[in-house]
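Lab notebook, bench 4. The sequencing result for the construct came back, and we need a structural model before the next group meeting so we can plan mutations. Quick request posted to the team channel:

Model the 3D structure of this chain.
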Amino acid sequence: MNKKKVLVICGTGVATSTIVMQKLKAFLRDKDIEATLEQSKVSDVLNKAGQYDLIISTTAVPPSMVEKVINAVPLLTGIGKEQVYDEIEARLKM
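Done. Here's the predicted structure in token form:
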């Protein structure tokens, strides 16, 4: 399986994306899934989206990016996080 590239974004590329990055790293390690993770702010997504297989976001993204994006807010709130992890795992194993 090819190593997938994942971009984790939030409004500023600092606060919530850092929390999601930590949780995502632990999840991928536990599931033995290899992926390259990078962090950025939402304003960079249009320029960078083509370089990534998956985008994990805690904020709204442009409509043209929706197919590549998984909403990561449940990873922050804890409500619905298992569904998000399942979707991440499924997309990275495609």
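The radius of gyration is 12 Å.
Will bring this to the meeting.
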